[in-house]
Specification:
The complex is a heterodimer of chains A (87) and B (196). Chain A is α+β, with helices and mostly antiparallel strands and 87 residues long. Chain A has one domain. Helices cover 18% and strands 40% of the residues of chain A. Chain A contains one helix and six strands. By secondary structure, chain B is α+β, with helices and mostly antiparallel strands. The termini of chain B are far apart. Classes of the chains: A alpha+beta (87), B alpha+beta (196). Chains A and B meet through β1, β2, β3, β4 and β5 of A and α2, β6 and α4 of B. β6 of chain A pairs antiparallel with β6 of chain B.
């Protein structure tokens, strides 16, 4: 599993990577996951709907909510009202 | 005599500031967070990465739509308290760095603009906007996972407030033509980039 953060100046950047089935690596993933949420990020997991085969997304607020088979967790800054005039 | 001296002193001050300024990617001045494993990249590279990520997450037809039209049309999703899926509120046109345009699900009539951004505020950057692909992806993921959550943070105004109604109507016609063209073609395999 990889934790990726979308941010200006990077595109996405790797925060942490590990196998959540291994205790030490899970601990790292959980710590970094919490750090991102503490910084005000939203977290989402790309998933595939088994019924339709369509790609979907799930928003998560705790590491325990991340589907076990997830390969990536994406973080991005929480939404705020307003939009720039740039087209 | 005083004016040239002042101008000269100003030029010296500007030159000194440029000389001692830390090397940064053009247009970006921000702190690197402690957890970051790499330095910021150039704006074109960040844009390329963000588009790669978008392509690897959304459906192949949505990526093709974005490539062809410059926006993605997607139906919102929301859920009841018991976890069951509820009837979607709207369809949306997702443009990069522009408001979401909410459409009535059946008639596709534009009814609202939801102005939304994902500002990076904690790194001291001078350009706090996500790259194009990331902006679209953040909107897509939130709309498809929980449209009510996104709408709760947005500024709402009538359709046509920032994006002219004439542009929306033109884009809806382009979308209809694009869909008619692609409805006759077999679905293509998911576009997963080598990076993912």
């Amino acid at each position: 599993m990889r934790l990726l953060r979308m941010m200006p100046g990077y595109g996405e950047t790797l925060i942490a990577e590990g196998d959540p089935a291994l205790d030490a690596e899970r601990e790292l993933l959980v710590r970094e996951f919490r750090r991102q949420l503490d910084e005000g990020m939203w977290a989402g997991v790309p998933v595939t709907d088994e019924r339709t085969g369509r790609r979907e997304a799930v928003l998560v607020t705790a590491f325990e909510q991340v589907p076990a088979e997830a390969e990536r967790v994406l973080f991005w800054p929480r939404a705020a009202g307003g939009a720039s005039a740039r087209a | 005599m005083t004016v040239p001296i002042v101008i000269g002193a100003g030029l010296v001050a500007v030159a000194a500031r440029l000389l001692v300024r830390p090397r940064t990617v053009r247009g970006l001045r921000r702190q690197t967070p402690s957890w970051a494993r790499e330095a910021p990249v150039s704006r074109p590279e960040a844009e390329r990465r963000s588009l790669d990520l978008l392509r690897s997450v959304v459906n192949a037809d949505e990526w093709a739509m974005f490539e062809a039209l410059g926006f993605i049309c997607v139906t919102g999703r929301r859920f009841r308290a018991d976890g069951r899926e509820a009837i979607p509120r709207y369809r949306y046109l997702i443009y990069p760095h522009l408001p979401l345009v909410a459409l009535l699900p059946r008639s596709m009539a534009p009814v609202r603009e939801y102005c939304i951004q994902f500002p990076e505020t904690g790194l001291g950057g001078t350009d706090g906007l996500l790259p194009t692909g990331d902006d679209v992806l953040a909107k897509w993921m939130t709309v498809r996972a929980d449209e009510d959550r996104l709408l709760a943070f947005a500024n709402v105004c009538n359709a046509g407030c920032q994006i002219p109604l004439s542009q929306i109507e033109r884009d809806l016609r382009r979308l209809a033509r694009w869909r008619a063209l692609h409805a006759r073609q077999p679905d293509v395999a998911p576009a997963i980039s080598a990076r993912y």
